[in-house]
């Protein structure tokens, strides 16, 4: 399929001609929906695009890509809108908001699902759980499938089943020249390689096909310890997760206990460290599997229990709604050394409010069954990834949170592996992007030259065409 629409300018008449060819919606400044639709997850990005297109189907996507290519305006592709750098919006340009394309088709026979490019992980969880199946995603269900998958994607099922992008079987993509192509191991394999970690650089994915795995009721949730035992808990966590079977997932975090209904009142506002667990093995083995976690240090609050997998994946959604201010810094970690733990002990308990956090996710297990050059995601030789996030309702509080994030991150730098997860990067420049892709960057740049030589898709952690 090739989009044939080709306006000569962005004049009013050209925009009208474009809009009349769209089956979905075209929203402009002054329209009732405009102020709501222009918002992205991170409220720091208060932008005013010229046009926001909500496509009805892949043809609308192709028409919009062709229009954007001719218009020469900034062009943002938005999946779930969660990217904290604000790639899902711009000033004065075109936004393709895929939230209008969220259909999901599950095929339990061949254990796969086709997921449209604007779906969230909550949409996917609901659809696949009907069949007792799931695919690896993140730890918050409102995140978009599009951005998370294209950057790699890790969460509760990753130690057992790999990155989200490792579970991508095939994808339908509208390319920069407005064609709809399929990328898989057998069709356009260079594009398929680049989509698995290379971000939104290579086209608009209108639908993803994922492998599904038998995951139904799990045993998990958070367990909290006093912050002054963080060193003991982190040393325990490091050794435990190194040896744990793939059915065990657990990440470590620093938090201030929120005034949430599931937290007893006497703990509201207490600084704590936590391990968040997801055991997907046999339920009758769960208590034994988590026993060492319960014995790591005196427990302040234990909220672990049996629950449907989608319940765990959405457990923290309400604590991090859209519309907050976010500033993040992150890096990969080869090891969690005692020296790095000493840094965490110093900065972690200074977490400034109950929204801000430090999380340390495991990247061992199935992630390391794939070679670094097999997909664009290069960092398969590290054990952890850490993220430090300053988050607040008020912009005025952000300078202090940003300082905490930067100081903490800088102190950890000497202990970090060098690059950062592409989906946790903010606007940090080409050197950081290259450090993240390492040996895969040159191949990504060559693939970019093939599929997007004019860099139409550049509102992302940009790979510059070779
Ligand atoms: P968007 O802002 O819509 O898009 C991000 C980028 O992807 C843009 O460059 C966009 O152009 C591109 N893109 C999106 N959809 C498409 C598409 N269909 N076709 C082509 N390009 C597309 N990541 C993890 O791996 N694990 C986690 O557990 C995790 N937890 C998170 C929790 C929160 C609260 C937040 C805010 C983020 C989390 N992330 C996590 C990071 C997340 O992966 C990124 O923010 C990701 O960019 C979100 O994808 P999105 O589609 O929602 O974002």
What would you say this structure looks like, in words?
The longest helix has 15 residues. This protein is α+β, with helices and mostly antiparallel strands. It is built from 14 helices and 19 strands. A hairpin with a 4-residue loop joins β5 and β6. The N terminus is likely disordered. The site of flavin-adenine dinucleotide has 34 residues, from β3, α5 and β10.
Question: How are the secondary structure elements laid out?
Answer:
Elements: H1 12-20, E1 25-27, H2 34-37, E2 51-54, H3 58-71, E3 75-78, E4 94-97, E5 104-107, E6 112-116, H4 121-129, E7 133-134, H5 145-151, H6 158-161, E8 168-174, E9 180-184, H7 189-195, E10 204-211, E11 213-214, E12 217-226, H8 230-243, E13 248-256, E14 271-279, H9 286-294, E15 301-302, E16 305-308, H10 309-313, E17 325-333, H11 338-347, E18 357-362, E19 384-392, H12 398-412, H13 430-437, H14 441-451
Parallel strand pairs: 2-4, 3-4
Antiparallel strand pairs: 1-2, 5-6, 6-10, 7-11, 8-9, 8-10, 12-14, 12-15, 12-16, 13-14, 13-18, 17-19, 18-19
Helix pairs in contact: 8-11, 11-12
Bound molecules: flavin-adenine dinucleotide.
């Amino acid at each position: 399929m090739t989009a044939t629409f080709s306006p000569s300018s962005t004049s009013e008449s050209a925009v009208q001609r474009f809009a009349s060819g769209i089956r979905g919606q075209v929203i402009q400044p002054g329209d009732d929906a405009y102020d709501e639709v222009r918002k992205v997850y991170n409220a720091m990005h208060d932008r005013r695009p010229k046009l926001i297109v909500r496509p009805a189907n892949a043809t609308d996507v192709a028409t919009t890509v062709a229009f954007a290519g001719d218009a020469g305006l900034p062009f943002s592709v938005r999946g779930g809108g969660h990217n904290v750098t604000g790639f899902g919006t711009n000033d004065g340009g075109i936004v393709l908001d895929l939230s209008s394309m969220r259909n999901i088709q599950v095929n339990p026979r061949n254990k796969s699902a086709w997921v449209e490019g604007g779906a969230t992980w909550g949409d996917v969880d609901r659809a696949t759980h009907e069949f007792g199946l799931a695919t690896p995603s993140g730890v918050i269900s409102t995140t978009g499938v599009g951005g998370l998958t294209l950057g790699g994607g890790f969460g509760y099922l990753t130690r057992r089943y790999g990155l989200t992008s490792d579970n991508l079987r095939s994808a339908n993509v509208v390319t920069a020249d407005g064609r709809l192509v399929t990328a898989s191991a057998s069709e356009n394999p260079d594009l398929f390689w680049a989509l698995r970690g290379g971000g939104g650089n290579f086209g608009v994915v209108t639908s993803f096909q994922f492998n599904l795995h038998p995951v139904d009721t799990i045993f998990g949730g958070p367990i909290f310890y006093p912050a002054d035992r963080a060193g003991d808990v982190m040393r325990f966590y490091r050794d435990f997760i190194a040896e744990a079977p793939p059915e065990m997932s657990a990440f470590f975090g620093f938090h201030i206990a929120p005034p949430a209904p599931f937290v007893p009142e006497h703990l509201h506002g207490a600084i704590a460290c936590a391990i968040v667990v997801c055991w997907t093995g046999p339920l009758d083995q769960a208590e034994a599997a988590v026993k060492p976690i319960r014995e790591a240090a005196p427990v302040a609050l234990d909220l672990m229990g049996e629950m449907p997998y989608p319940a765990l994946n959405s457990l923290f959604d309400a604590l991090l709604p859209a519309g907050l201010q976010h500033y993040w810094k992150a890096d990969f970690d080869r090891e969690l050394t005692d020296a790095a733990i000493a840094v965490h002990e110093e900065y972690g308990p200074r977490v400034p409010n109950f929204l801000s956090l430090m999380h340390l996710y495991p990247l061992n297990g199935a992630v390391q069954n794939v070679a670094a050059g097999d997909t664009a995601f290069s960092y398969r030789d590290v054990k952890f990834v850490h993220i430090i996030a300053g988050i607040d309702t008020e912009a005025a509080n952000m300078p202090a949170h940003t300082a905490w994030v930067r100081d903490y991150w800088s102190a950890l730098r000497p202990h970090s592996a060098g690059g950062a997860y592409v989906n946790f990067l903010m606007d940090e420049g080409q050197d950081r992007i290259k450090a993240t892709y390492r040996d895969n960057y040159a191949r990504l740049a060559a693939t970019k030259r093939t599929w997007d030589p004019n860099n139409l898709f550049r509102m992302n952690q940009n790979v510059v065409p070779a």
